[in-house]
Amino acid sequence: MSGFSVFLIFFLHVLHYSVIRTKIPIENPPFIFNSSDENEMRMFLDNEIPKDDTLKHPYSQDVTLENFPNPFIHPSLCNRSGLKYSYICDPNKILSRNIADKVEEILSYQRRNSSHYCMDKGEVPYVLGVALIKKLPYGISADMFGNQILDYWKLGNKNCNDGILLLFVKDDATFELKWKKGAQSIINFRTATSMNKSFNQNIRRYSLEHSILRAVKLTSQYLTGEIIPPTQTTQMVVALTIAIVVGLGYLACILIVFADAQK
């Protein structure tokens, strides 16, 4: 066997092994908390002693599109008393104070660790808000309610049209994810469908508060890039395939020249 043949076989073997070992991010991997997160949540959910303010009556008015509170203006009406503003609104007190604080921490982490380009401002974080409601107003769908709240709160960076809202309806045990056009590079119909499947699985498996906490965490992971959206995963696979094909083309040219030189 000639030296050229040995070299070619060796190269193809190395290339095959490299492709197999290439680590491509898993598209929509199972949502798993690490052990420390699980322990923290058990502490919050199992050992929590409600404070006095969590024992007060929930928001007494019938919630409508017109009177649903804005946590950036009236955080106390959103069960976030003591804060100047909040990214959560829970007028019916679905969450305990400790769990609401935990959600706030996740949202803060997401804003510090997510980034995208806005034409007017350059690199800015995604802005995610969470709205919880016991029961939807009569004749109003979760889709309509979510869109209205997203507009009413003016979520997002100014002039970037990039706000994102996670709505939870307690009586229906459903989540609704809404987003503006400027966030479509990370959240789109395909991504939202995949996320909703995870939300629904968590509702069936875990307690109400735990499910909400997981839904917020999962959404945050998409926005920070800890989970790769389906469209980005596909793009990475295509880019890798093109790179391999181009590399093989260059190699073929080099080997042909090398073979001619040996004649």
From TrEMBL:
* Keywords from the UniProt entry: Membrane, Signal, Transmembrane, Transmembrane helix
Pfam families the record matches:
MOLO1
Record's signal peptide: 1-22
> Does the keyword Methyltransferase feature in the UniProt annotation?
no
Looking up InterPro entries in the UniProt record yields:
MOLO1
Listed under GO cellular component are: acetylcholine-gated channel complex
List the transmembrane segments. Answer: 236-259
Q: What is this protein called?
A: MOLO1 domain-containing protein
- The encoding gene: PmUG01_05036300
